[in-house]
Design a protein that fits this description.
By secondary structure, the chain is mostly helical. 88% of the residues lie in helices and 0% in strands. The protein has helices at 2-41, 45-71, 79-99, 103-123.
Length: 124
């Protein structure tokens, strides 16, 4: 009985961590949109956007970690791990497109990522 209570508490902590990770990712993607606007208007906008890209990528990696930690102890569905891994792939493509200066794909992909992240947050 005590093992079942411990497993339930562990699963709830993992789920909370996952929700925080998704929220953080959503916030960082939104801030990237803001810094993209500043990129056009401020001399230091490129620096802000570049730093923000690193933070957003880190948030995507944190989302993968949180999804694995929420899945493994509780033995739940691996679906969040696949979603988080997909976001990490999208973030990787986004970084490559940004470095290559391909705004015609970089901007719509950023909008798609924000929408998917909000959707993932709403589902939790």
């Amino acid at each position: 009985m005590a093992t079942q209570v411990t497993a339930t508490a562990s699963a709830q902590r993992g789920s909370s961590f996952l929700q925080i990770a998704i929220a953080l990712q959503t916030l960082t993607i939104f801030l990237q949109a803001v810094s993209a606007g500043l990129l056009l208007t401020l001399s230091y906008g490129e620096t802000l956007h570049s730093v923000g890209a690193r933070v957003m990528y880190g948030a995507s990696m944190l989302y993968v970690l949180a999804a694995v930690l929420a899945w493994k102890p509780g033995g739940g569905s691996p679906r969040p791990v696949w979603h988080a891994s997909g976001f990490l792939v999208l973030a990787s493509v986004q970084v490559v497109l940004g470095i290559a200066h391909v705004p015609s794909v970089h901007l719509p992909l950023g909008v798609l990522m924000f929408g998917l992240s909000v959707l993932a947050l709403a589902r939790r």
